[in-house]
Known about the structure:
Helix content is 43%, strand content 13%. The protein has 15 helices and 15 strands. Strands 3-2-1-4-5-6-7-8 form an eight-stranded mixed beta sheet, with helices on both faces. Helix 5 runs parallel beside helix 6 (157-167) and helix 8 (230-260) packs across helix 11 (312-322). The radius of gyration is 27 Å and the shape is elongated. The structure holds ligand SAJ. The site of ligand SAJ has 20 residues, from helix 8.
Amino acid sequence: VLASFVFLSEFIQVSSLGFYNPYIQFTLFLLKLYMEVSRTLKTKIEQKTAVVGIMGVGYVGSNLGWAVSSAGYNVVGFDIDKHKIYTINSAGKKNFIATDDFSKLGTCDVVFVCVPTPVDKSKKPNLTPFVRAIKSIKEYLKKGQLIIVESSVAPGTVRGIALPVLQTSGMTAENDFFLAFSPERVDPGNRKYEFCDIPKIVAGMGNTSKDLTASLYGKFVNKVVPVSSIETAEFTKLFENTFRLVNISLVNQVQEYADAIGIDMNEVVEAAATKPFGFLPHYPGPGVGGHCIPVDPYYLVDDAKKHNISLSIIEDAGRINSNRPKKVAGKAQRILEETNGVKKHHTVLIVGVTYKPDVADVRESASLEIWEMLREKGYTVHYHDPYISAINGVSSIELSDDTVKNFDLIIISTDHKNIDYDGLLQAKIPILDTRNVYNGNATTNVFRL
Ligand code: SAJ
């Protein structure tokens, strides 16, 4: 009855505008209803009464959830991983809870998609988690909901895959629901930039989606950067990480040449970085880990191939970086044979097993590849990492004179800040410093990559 009353009053109001053409009247009426939908959401965003859902509360979704809830919104995290759910709920933040009950998606005014978009062993994109998340959202999609994809995907994925799935609900984007894309830029362990300091690129299926999304991010991010299309935003994310991958591979490959002629590549990079323009420092390392840099660029490679374009530079860069753990293992073997004899059984201590310093994340970590290669050479390998208490069936060993002296070689593979590297020198054990923690300071028992 209420609905028909609203319908009637709207119809009368519209028709009183003097348009007696029924088609114009009906169109105006629909326009009014549509504006009502977006205006309601806009009001909820402005008044912070919008309920915000986040599909996937890993490092991206959980960081986003803390930021959005700290801005004053009620946030519901959705995940299939009970540990992730427990971690959020045990924090006891009243306006940030997590659940595996996806039916609660229907209570959300906004739903972010922050699920992983990995690649498989042959570097082919794997959108299974992404499509599964979109289908769950479609199940509970309601009129006026805003869906914002943050997961890194190839250009055209939101429009070509997410949109059709959502529209099987019978609702259409920009009329019944809103659909946008804003690439995640969470940087684990980065203490220099808070969440709010990192500008957010934003694009929508239409202007209303874009504007609603920009106004929401504007509540907890200092700078929102609207771009012309969703594809531009998808492309931007992948390109910014491809830039990093290629530059890391450049410094890794050139380091081999520098090393061959006795030049310290880290010193070269530091010297080049004194140029205040046109140079961005990247440093040689034992390999490229994590879930962004060695992954995102292959979404570009894969999509470019569909357009008969070969982004060979990215594939070459990937090969250079993938080859680094093998170089470290080979260098370790040479050092051991030089310092410890060819036949003697060798024991190696790897310092740092996470993929990058000061984070407790081992995904795609080069250190673990190096470990496996040393084990295949018959070496006994132990590790120390203050962020990882146990892995590969062993525990992190404490660094002390008594423990360190039992090793034939120490490999500094991830340079956490909270490790006493000078203390390691006291043991006079050969050290392979793949991260330049000794900054090239010449000491007899320190070897560079
Ligand atoms: N690495 C090098 N040399 C370098 C920089 C990194 O070998 O000069 C290695 C690291 O050891 C690590 C891998 O590359 O194994 C990736 O390092 P990363 O610093 O890029 O760390 P990520 O994977 O956490 O990348 C994130 C990305 N952020 C997002 O995707 C939102 C990336 O875009 C950032 O540039 C990066 O953090 C950052 O700058 O810290």
